[in-house]
Write a structure and sequence with these properties.
EC number: 3.6.1.27
Organism: Niallia nealsonii
Strand content: under 5%
Radius of gyration: 19 Å
Shape: globular
Main location: membrane
Strand order of the largest sheet: 1-2
Order of helices and strands: HHHHHEEHHHHHHH
Number of domains: 1
Keywords: Antibiotic resistance, Cell membrane, Cell shape, Cell wall biogenesis/degradation, Hydrolase, Membrane, Peptidoglycan synthesis, Transmembrane, Transmembrane helix
Distance between the termini: 33 Å
Largest sheet: 2 strands, antiparallel
Helix content: over 70%
Structural class: mainly alpha
Number of strands: 2
GO molecular function, one term: undecaprenyl-diphosphatase activity
Number of helices: 12
Length: about 280
């Protein structure tokens, strides 16, 4: 019975990770509610095992992005000339632009990793991040509605400067609860990208930085992946992968239609729930 419950916990946590990691709603905020309030995985497993598990399920979400954007990644690497049947000629999104976008958050993440882990992973800071992030998303939608020029409708038109500035917005996501997608999509929209284009660039840019951070963390905690914990990790990984596929496809179909406002409202509601339950 305990083994079955462990698998159920893994699947639920994988579901939460998959549905929220790439939506602009903060996977951290949801993990606080679902894990700490309902499932308490750290009471089932040692904290080190529970933390390693969260790294494993994040890799499941990353794999979903790689699968969904495989043609784009192959094109960036020069291994494929066509995306969805369209031959990419002239300017196209390059590996250099992705690196430019990654540099700001990558540098700050390394410099302030210990400070972030010690001081920003609290319920209070997550609540503040949810609310401030919601305000940024509302502002981005407002600016986009008042803009007279047509929005940039493909990542192939993103300039090096825009890639760098979006990377600066990604730095805000080092604040747990702010949401990587929320910060970078909002930044992209403020810089003249369509919501869909900003989302595409966000997902593409997220893969190397999230994969790198996850693999480093996994190497540090490899000893906690044992035969006893393996079923738990596998169930969570598969769950996160499947639900991330569903979430990303659904999100990309809707984002240009519904914009960021509904997600901003949802974030505020989530912040209120956390305040009422935890504070």
């Amino acid at each position: 019975m305990n083994e079955l419950w462990n698998i159920i916990v893994a699947v639920i946590l994988g579901l939460v990770e998959g549905l929220t990691e790439f939506a602009p709603v903060s996977s951290t905020g949801h993990m606080i509610i679902v894990d700490d309030l309902l499932l308490k995985s750290k009471e089932i497993f040692r904290p080190e095992v529970a933390n390693t598990f969260k790294v494993v399920i994040q890799l499941g979400s990353i794999l979903a992005v790689v699968i969904l954007f495989k043609d784009r990644f192959l094109n960036i690497l020069g291994l494929k000339k066509e995306i969805n049947g369209v031959r990419k000629k002239g300017h196209r999104l390059s590996l250099v632009q992705i690196i430019i976008g990654l540099l700001p958050a990558g540098i700050l993440g390394v410099l302030f990793e210990d400070y972030i882990d010690e001081h920003l992973f609290t319920i209070h800071t997550v609540v503040y991040a949810l609310i401030v992030g919601a305000i940024l998303m509302i502002v981005a939608d407002f600016v986009q509605r008042r803009r007279k020029n047509a929005a940039i409708d493909t990542v192939d038109k993103i300039t090096n400067t825009q890639a760098f500035l979006i990377g600066l917005f990604q730095c805000i996501a080092l604040w747990p609860g702010f949401s990587r997608s929320g910060s970078t999509i909002s930044g992209g929209v403020l810089l003249g990208l369509s919501h869909r284009t900003a989302a595409d660039f966000t997902f593409i840019m997220a893969v190397p930085i999230m994969a790198g951070a996850s693999f480093i963390s996994l190497l540090k905690n490899w000893q906690y992946i044992t035969m006893d914990t393996m079923p738990f990790f596998i169930a969570g990984f598969i769950s996160a992968f499947v639900f991330a596929i569903i979430s990303i496809r659904f999100f990309l179909k809707l984002i240009d239609k519904i914009k960021l406002l509904p997600f901003a409202i949802y974030r505020i509601v989530l912040a209120v729930i956390i305040i009422l339950v935890f504070l």
